[in-house]
Amino acid sequence: MALILGLESSCDETAAALVTSDRRILAHRLAGQEAAHRPYGGVVPEIAARAHVEMLSPLIAAALADAGVTLADVDAVAATAGPGLIGGVMVGLVTGKALAHAAGKPLIAVNHLEGHALSPRLSDPDLEFPYLLLLVSGGHCQLLLVEGVARYRRLATTIDDAAGEAFDKTAKVLGLGFPGGPAVEVAAALGHAIVPLPRPLKGSPEPHFSFAGLKSAVVRAHDAKTWAVEDIAASFQAAVVDCLIDRTVRALGQAGKVTALVVAGGVAANTAVRTALSGLASAHGLRFVAPPLWLCTDNAAMIGWAGAERFAAGLTDPLDVAARPRWPL
Ligand code: KG4
Ligand code: ZN
Protein backbone atom coordinates (compact mmCIF):
# COMPACT_ATOMS: atom_id res chain seq x y z
CA MET A 1 0.00 0.00 0.00
CA ALA A 2 1.39 3.39 -1.05
CA LEU A 3 0.44 6.80 0.36
CA ILE A 4 0.49 9.72 -2.09
CA LEU A 5 0.27 13.45 -1.43
CA GLY A 6 -1.58 15.08 -4.34
CA LEU A 7 -1.44 18.80 -5.21
CA GLU A 8 -3.64 20.73 -7.66
CA SER A 9 -3.29 24.38 -8.72
CA SER A 10 -3.81 24.53 -12.49
CA CYS A 11 -6.84 26.82 -12.56
CA ASP A 12 -8.82 28.46 -9.76
CA GLU A 13 -8.93 25.72 -7.11
CA THR A 14 -6.03 25.22 -4.72
CA ALA A 15 -6.11 21.68 -3.32
CA ALA A 16 -4.14 19.08 -1.37
CA ALA A 17 -5.12 15.47 -0.68
CA LEU A 18 -3.75 12.23 0.75
CA VAL A 19 -4.77 9.15 -1.19
CA THR A 20 -3.74 5.51 -0.82
CA SER A 21 -3.16 2.99 -3.59
CA ASP A 22 -6.08 0.99 -2.16
CA ARG A 23 -8.46 3.89 -2.87
CA ARG A 24 -8.74 5.46 0.56
CA ILE A 25 -8.96 9.24 0.57
CA LEU A 26 -7.43 10.02 3.95
CA ALA A 27 -7.83 13.78 3.51
CA HIS A 28 -8.80 16.26 0.86
CA ARG A 29 -8.70 20.00 1.31
CA LEU A 30 -9.73 22.57 -1.28
CA ALA A 31 -9.91 26.35 -1.43
CA GLY A 32 -11.92 27.85 -4.29
CA GLN A 33 -11.27 31.38 -5.52
CA GLU A 34 -14.72 32.28 -6.91
CA ALA A 35 -15.06 35.46 -4.84
CA ALA A 36 -11.69 36.81 -6.03
CA HIS A 37 -12.52 36.28 -9.72
CA ARG A 38 -16.25 37.08 -9.69
CA PRO A 39 -15.83 40.87 -10.22
CA TYR A 40 -14.02 40.08 -13.50
CA GLY A 41 -16.52 37.47 -14.73
CA GLY A 42 -13.78 34.89 -15.27
CA VAL A 43 -10.51 33.53 -13.91
CA VAL A 44 -7.72 36.16 -13.82
CA PRO A 45 -4.41 34.21 -14.06
CA GLU A 46 -2.35 36.63 -11.94
CA ILE A 47 -4.93 36.68 -9.13
CA ALA A 48 -5.14 32.87 -9.30
CA ALA A 49 -1.37 32.40 -9.04
CA ARG A 50 -1.11 34.69 -6.01
CA ALA A 51 -3.99 32.92 -4.28
CA HIS A 52 -2.31 29.53 -4.88
CA VAL A 53 0.89 30.88 -3.26
CA GLU A 54 -1.10 31.98 -0.20
CA MET A 55 -3.30 28.91 0.16
CA LEU A 56 -1.27 25.86 -0.85
CA SER A 57 1.04 25.46 2.16
CA PRO A 58 -1.73 25.84 4.78
CA LEU A 59 -3.90 23.36 2.83
CA ILE A 60 -1.07 20.79 2.72
CA ALA A 61 -0.51 21.19 6.47
CA ALA A 62 -4.24 20.82 7.12
CA ALA A 63 -4.52 17.73 4.89
CA LEU A 64 -1.56 16.03 6.62
CA ALA A 65 -3.14 16.82 10.01
CA ASP A 66 -6.57 15.52 8.88
CA ALA A 67 -4.97 12.26 7.77
CA GLY A 68 -2.88 12.02 10.94
CA VAL A 69 0.35 11.57 8.97
CA THR A 70 3.54 13.51 8.32
CA LEU A 71 5.52 14.03 5.14
CA ALA A 72 7.80 11.20 6.25
CA ASP A 73 4.86 8.74 5.92
CA VAL A 74 4.21 9.71 2.30
CA ASP A 75 5.60 7.43 -0.44
CA ALA A 76 5.52 10.01 -3.25
CA VAL A 77 4.41 13.56 -4.01
CA ALA A 78 2.16 14.01 -7.07
CA ALA A 79 1.62 17.51 -8.43
CA THR A 80 -0.21 18.80 -11.49
CA ALA A 81 2.48 19.81 -14.00
CA GLY A 82 0.07 21.07 -16.71
CA PRO A 83 -1.90 21.85 -18.75
CA GLY A 84 -3.31 25.01 -17.20
CA LEU A 85 -2.61 28.60 -16.22
CA ILE A 86 1.18 28.51 -16.07
CA GLY A 87 1.61 30.70 -12.96
CA GLY A 88 -0.64 28.43 -10.91
CA VAL A 89 0.85 25.22 -12.32
CA MET A 90 4.33 26.46 -11.35
CA VAL A 91 3.22 27.18 -7.76
CA GLY A 92 1.94 23.62 -7.27
CA LEU A 93 4.77 21.90 -9.12
CA VAL A 94 7.54 23.86 -7.37
CA THR A 95 5.89 23.15 -4.02
CA GLY A 96 5.69 19.46 -4.91
CA LYS A 97 9.34 19.41 -5.95
CA ALA A 98 10.42 21.12 -2.73
CA LEU A 99 8.47 18.67 -0.54
CA ALA A 100 9.69 15.66 -2.50
CA HIS A 101 13.29 16.85 -2.28
CA ALA A 102 13.05 17.72 1.43
CA ALA A 103 11.48 14.36 2.30
CA GLY A 104 13.65 12.35 -0.08
CA LYS A 105 10.55 10.96 -1.84
CA PRO A 106 9.88 10.57 -5.58
CA LEU A 107 8.04 13.28 -7.50
CA ILE A 108 5.22 12.41 -9.91
CA ALA A 109 4.39 15.12 -12.47
CA VAL A 110 0.72 14.55 -13.28
CA ASN A 111 -1.07 15.71 -16.39
CA HIS A 112 -4.26 17.36 -15.10
CA LEU A 113 -6.25 15.62 -17.86
CA GLU A 114 -4.91 12.26 -16.69
CA GLY A 115 -6.15 13.19 -13.22
CA HIS A 116 -9.66 13.61 -14.62
CA ALA A 117 -9.29 10.53 -16.86
CA LEU A 118 -8.34 8.15 -14.03
CA SER A 119 -10.56 9.71 -11.33
CA PRO A 120 -13.47 7.32 -12.10
CA ARG A 121 -11.21 4.43 -11.05
CA LEU A 122 -10.76 6.04 -7.64
CA SER A 123 -14.50 6.08 -6.96
CA ASP A 124 -15.24 2.78 -8.74
CA PRO A 125 -12.91 -0.12 -7.91
CA ASP A 126 -14.56 -2.29 -10.57
CA LEU A 127 -13.78 0.03 -13.50
CA GLU A 128 -11.35 -1.84 -15.76
CA PHE A 129 -9.47 -0.71 -18.89
CA PRO A 130 -10.27 -0.07 -21.68
CA TYR A 131 -13.09 2.45 -21.27
CA LEU A 132 -14.47 5.25 -23.40
CA LEU A 133 -14.15 8.54 -21.55
CA LEU A 134 -15.98 11.76 -22.29
CA LEU A 135 -13.77 14.39 -20.67
CA VAL A 136 -15.72 17.64 -20.40
CA SER A 137 -14.20 20.51 -18.44
CA GLY A 138 -13.65 24.26 -18.64
CA GLY A 139 -10.61 23.86 -20.87
CA HIS A 140 -11.23 20.57 -22.67
CA CYS A 141 -13.86 18.55 -24.49
CA GLN A 142 -12.50 15.21 -25.62
CA LEU A 143 -13.40 11.61 -26.21
CA LEU A 144 -10.57 9.37 -25.05
CA LEU A 145 -10.08 5.65 -25.27
CA VAL A 146 -8.42 4.93 -21.92
CA GLU A 147 -6.44 1.74 -22.57
CA GLY A 148 -4.32 1.83 -19.42
CA VAL A 149 -2.25 4.11 -17.21
CA ALA A 150 -0.35 6.46 -19.55
CA ARG A 151 -2.12 4.85 -22.52
CA TYR A 152 -4.71 7.23 -23.95
CA ARG A 153 -6.01 7.44 -27.50
CA ARG A 154 -7.77 10.69 -28.38
CA LEU A 155 -10.73 10.00 -30.66
CA ALA A 156 -12.17 13.52 -30.70
CA THR A 157 -11.56 17.02 -29.40
CA THR A 158 -13.14 20.44 -29.81
CA ILE A 159 -12.27 22.58 -32.81
CA ASP A 160 -13.10 25.77 -30.89
CA ASP A 161 -14.57 26.11 -27.36
CA ALA A 162 -14.67 23.49 -24.61
CA ALA A 163 -18.10 22.48 -23.29
CA GLY A 164 -17.50 24.13 -19.90
CA GLU A 165 -16.27 27.27 -21.63
CA ALA A 166 -19.56 27.37 -23.56
CA PHE A 167 -21.47 27.07 -20.24
CA ASP A 168 -19.35 29.87 -18.74
CA LYS A 169 -19.78 32.19 -21.75
CA THR A 170 -23.53 31.50 -21.88
CA ALA A 171 -23.81 32.36 -18.18
CA LYS A 172 -21.99 35.62 -18.83
CA VAL A 173 -24.24 36.55 -21.79
CA LEU A 174 -27.36 35.71 -19.80
CA GLY A 175 -26.15 37.62 -16.74
CA LEU A 176 -26.21 34.50 -14.56
CA GLY A 177 -22.84 35.15 -12.91
CA PHE A 178 -19.69 33.15 -12.26
CA PRO A 179 -18.89 30.26 -12.15
CA GLY A 180 -21.19 29.72 -15.10
CA GLY A 181 -21.90 25.99 -15.38
CA PRO A 182 -23.82 25.51 -12.14
CA ALA A 183 -25.65 28.85 -12.68
CA VAL A 184 -26.84 27.78 -16.15
CA GLU A 185 -27.97 24.43 -14.77
CA VAL A 186 -30.05 26.12 -12.05
CA ALA A 187 -31.63 28.54 -14.56
CA ALA A 188 -32.25 25.71 -17.05
CA ALA A 189 -34.24 23.80 -14.43
CA LEU A 190 -36.70 26.73 -14.34
CA GLY A 191 -37.09 27.00 -18.13
CA HIS A 192 -38.20 25.05 -21.19
CA ALA A 193 -36.05 24.07 -24.17
CA ILE A 194 -38.17 26.01 -26.68
CA VAL A 195 -35.57 28.34 -28.21
CA PRO A 196 -34.31 27.05 -31.57
CA LEU A 197 -30.52 26.71 -31.25
CA PRO A 198 -28.02 24.92 -33.53
CA ARG A 199 -26.25 21.60 -32.79
CA PRO A 200 -22.81 22.26 -34.36
CA LEU A 201 -21.24 19.20 -36.06
CA LYS A 202 -24.16 16.94 -35.06
CA GLY A 203 -24.22 14.06 -37.54
CA SER A 204 -20.90 15.10 -39.04
CA PRO A 205 -18.65 12.30 -40.36
CA GLU A 206 -15.69 13.93 -38.60
CA PRO A 207 -15.36 13.03 -34.91
CA HIS A 208 -14.95 16.45 -33.29
CA PHE A 209 -16.95 18.88 -31.17
CA SER A 210 -17.74 22.55 -31.79
CA PHE A 211 -19.53 25.00 -29.50
CA ALA A 212 -18.61 28.47 -30.84
CA GLY A 213 -21.64 28.66 -33.16
CA LEU A 214 -23.94 27.65 -30.31
CA LYS A 215 -22.57 30.43 -28.15
CA SER A 216 -23.14 32.99 -30.94
CA ALA A 217 -26.71 31.73 -31.32
CA VAL A 218 -27.23 32.24 -27.57
CA VAL A 219 -26.04 35.84 -27.95
CA ARG A 220 -28.53 36.40 -30.82
CA ALA A 221 -31.40 34.79 -28.89
CA HIS A 222 -30.65 36.99 -25.90
CA ASP A 223 -30.37 40.14 -28.06
CA ALA A 224 -33.75 39.37 -29.66
CA LYS A 225 -35.36 40.03 -26.24
CA THR A 226 -38.21 37.61 -27.04
CA TRP A 227 -37.10 34.71 -24.85
CA ALA A 228 -36.90 34.30 -21.09
CA VAL A 229 -33.38 33.79 -19.78
CA GLU A 230 -34.43 30.46 -18.22
CA ASP A 231 -35.74 29.21 -21.58
CA ILE A 232 -32.49 30.18 -23.32
CA ALA A 233 -30.52 28.40 -20.57
CA ALA A 234 -32.67 25.26 -20.89
CA SER A 235 -32.36 25.32 -24.69
CA PHE A 236 -28.60 25.83 -24.52
CA GLN A 237 -28.17 22.94 -22.09
CA ALA A 238 -30.33 20.69 -24.27
CA ALA A 239 -28.24 21.59 -27.33
CA VAL A 240 -24.98 20.81 -25.50
CA VAL A 241 -26.35 17.48 -24.31
CA ASP A 242 -27.46 16.61 -27.89
CA CYS A 243 -23.99 17.40 -29.25
CA LEU A 244 -22.23 15.42 -26.51
CA ILE A 245 -24.47 12.40 -27.09
CA ASP A 246 -24.16 12.53 -30.90
CA ARG A 247 -20.36 12.65 -30.78
CA THR A 248 -20.18 9.96 -28.09
CA VAL A 249 -22.37 7.61 -30.17
CA ARG A 250 -19.98 8.11 -33.08
CA ALA A 251 -16.95 7.41 -30.88
CA LEU A 252 -18.55 4.25 -29.48
CA GLY A 253 -18.66 2.99 -33.06
CA GLN A 254 -14.91 3.65 -33.42
CA ALA A 255 -13.67 2.57 -30.01
CA GLY A 256 -13.92 -1.22 -30.32
CA LYS A 257 -14.78 -3.23 -27.24
CA VAL A 258 -14.89 -1.19 -24.02
CA THR A 259 -15.88 -2.10 -20.47
CA ALA A 260 -17.83 1.10 -19.74
CA LEU A 261 -18.88 4.57 -20.83
CA VAL A 262 -17.32 7.04 -18.41
CA VAL A 263 -17.69 10.79 -17.93
CA ALA A 264 -15.34 13.09 -16.01
CA GLY A 265 -14.41 16.78 -15.71
CA GLY A 266 -16.38 19.72 -14.34
CA VAL A 267 -19.29 19.49 -16.82
CA ALA A 268 -19.82 15.89 -15.66
CA ALA A 269 -21.32 17.49 -12.54
CA ASN A 270 -24.31 18.51 -14.72
CA THR A 271 -27.34 16.30 -14.06
CA ALA A 272 -28.75 16.58 -17.61
CA VAL A 273 -25.39 15.49 -19.03
CA ARG A 274 -25.13 12.55 -16.60
CA THR A 275 -28.70 11.41 -17.21
CA ALA A 276 -28.35 11.48 -21.00
CA LEU A 277 -25.04 9.58 -20.94
CA SER A 278 -26.43 7.03 -18.53
CA GLY A 279 -29.32 6.40 -20.95
CA LEU A 280 -26.90 6.08 -23.86
CA ALA A 281 -24.77 3.57 -21.97
CA SER A 282 -27.72 1.34 -21.14
CA ALA A 283 -28.94 1.53 -24.76
CA HIS A 284 -25.52 0.13 -25.73
CA GLY A 285 -25.50 -2.47 -22.96
CA LEU A 286 -22.58 -0.72 -21.27
CA ARG A 287 -21.90 0.18 -17.67
CA PHE A 288 -22.05 3.91 -16.99
CA VAL A 289 -19.52 5.33 -14.55
CA ALA A 290 -19.44 8.92 -13.31
CA PRO A 291 -17.45 10.04 -10.27
CA PRO A 292 -19.32 11.79 -7.44
CA LEU A 293 -19.86 15.50 -8.16
CA TRP A 294 -17.00 16.75 -5.96
CA LEU A 295 -14.56 14.46 -7.80
CA CYS A 296 -15.72 15.77 -11.22
CA THR A 297 -14.67 19.38 -10.63
CA ASP A 298 -11.00 20.15 -9.95
CA ASN A 299 -9.58 18.61 -6.76
CA ALA A 300 -6.35 17.09 -5.49
CA ALA A 301 -7.69 13.60 -4.74
CA MET A 302 -7.75 12.87 -8.48
CA ILE A 303 -4.14 14.08 -8.79
CA GLY A 304 -3.13 11.92 -5.82
CA TRP A 305 -4.92 8.96 -7.38
CA ALA A 306 -3.29 9.48 -10.81
CA GLY A 307 -0.05 9.66 -8.82
CA ALA A 308 -0.86 6.34 -7.13
CA GLU A 309 -1.59 4.69 -10.49
CA ARG A 310 1.64 6.05 -12.02
CA PHE A 311 3.66 5.12 -8.91
CA ALA A 312 2.38 1.54 -9.12
CA ALA A 313 3.45 1.48 -12.78
CA GLY A 314 6.96 2.69 -11.81
CA LEU A 315 6.46 6.10 -13.42
CA THR A 316 8.18 8.88 -11.45
CA ASP A 317 9.78 12.11 -12.66
CA PRO A 318 13.07 13.99 -12.18
CA LEU A 319 13.04 17.16 -10.03
CA ASP A 320 13.82 19.33 -13.07
CA VAL A 321 10.61 18.34 -14.89
CA ALA A 322 9.04 21.45 -16.48
CA ALA A 323 5.61 22.99 -15.91
CA ARG A 324 3.64 22.93 -19.17
CA PRO A 325 0.83 25.38 -20.07
CA ARG A 326 -0.18 23.05 -22.93
CA TRP A 327 0.13 19.30 -22.64
CA PRO A 328 -2.08 17.03 -24.72
CA LEU A 329 -2.68 13.63 -23.20
O1 KG4 B 1 -12.77 20.25 -14.45
P1 KG4 B 1 -13.05 21.63 -13.99
O2 KG4 B 1 -13.37 21.87 -12.54
O3 KG4 B 1 -11.86 22.60 -14.36
C1 KG4 B 1 -11.15 22.47 -15.55
O4 KG4 B 1 -10.22 21.62 -15.59
O5 KG4 B 1 -11.52 23.18 -16.51
O6 KG4 B 1 -14.24 22.17 -14.91
C2 KG4 B 1 -14.76 23.45 -14.73
C3 KG4 B 1 -15.85 23.65 -15.76
C4 KG4 B 1 -16.35 25.10 -15.79
O7 KG4 B 1 -16.46 25.50 -17.13
C5 KG4 B 1 -17.71 24.98 -15.13
O8 KG4 B 1 -18.62 25.97 -15.57
C6 KG4 B 1 -18.14 23.59 -15.53
O9 KG4 B 1 -16.98 22.82 -15.43
N1 KG4 B 1 -19.18 23.08 -14.63
C7 KG4 B 1 -20.43 22.80 -15.04
C8 KG4 B 1 -21.14 22.41 -13.87
N2 KG4 B 1 -20.29 22.44 -12.80
C9 KG4 B 1 -19.08 22.85 -13.31
N3 KG4 B 1 -21.01 22.86 -16.25
C10 KG4 B 1 -22.31 22.53 -16.33
N4 KG4 B 1 -23.06 22.15 -15.27
C11 KG4 B 1 -22.53 22.07 -14.02
N5 KG4 B 1 -23.27 21.70 -12.99
ZN1 ZN C 1 -10.03 20.14 -14.55
From TrEMBL:
Location of this chain's protein in the cell: Cytoplasm
Cofactor: Fe(2+)
Pfam families: TsaD
The enzyme's E.C. designation: 2.3.1.234
Superkingdom, taxonomy of origin: Bacteria
Domain Gcp-like: 25-305
Keywords annotated in UniProt: Acyltransferase, Cytoplasm, Iron, Metal-binding, Transferase, tRNA processing
Binding annotation for Fe cation: 112, 116, 298
CDD domains from the UniProt entry: ASKHA_NBD_TsaD_bac
Reaction(s) this enzyme catalyzes, per UniProt: L-threonylcarbamoyladenylate + adenosine(37) in tRNA = N(6)-L-threonylcarbamoyladenosine(37) in tRNA + AMP + H(+)
Residues where substrate binds: 135-139, 168, 181, 185, 270
Cofactor: how bound: Binds 1 Fe(2+) ion per subunit.
Main subcellular location: cytoplasm
SUPFAM superfamilies found in the cross-reference section: Actin-like ATPase domain
Task of the protein: Required for the formation of a threonylcarbamoyl group on adenosine at position 37 (t(6)A37) in tRNAs that read codons beginning with adenine. Is involved in the transfer of the threonylcarbamoyl moiety of threonylcarbamoyl-AMP (TC-AMP) to the N6 group of A37, together with TsaE and TsaB. TsaD likely plays a direct catalytic role in this reaction.
PANTHER family xrefs: TRNA N6-ADENOSINE THREONYLCARBAMOYLTRANSFERASE, TRNA N6-ADENOSINE THREONYLCARBAMOYLTRANSFERASE, MITOCHONDRIAL
Entry similarity comment: Belongs to the KAE1 / TsaD family.
Name this polypeptide is given: tRNA N6-adenosine threonylcarbamoyltransferase
Natural source organism: Sphingomonas psychrolutea
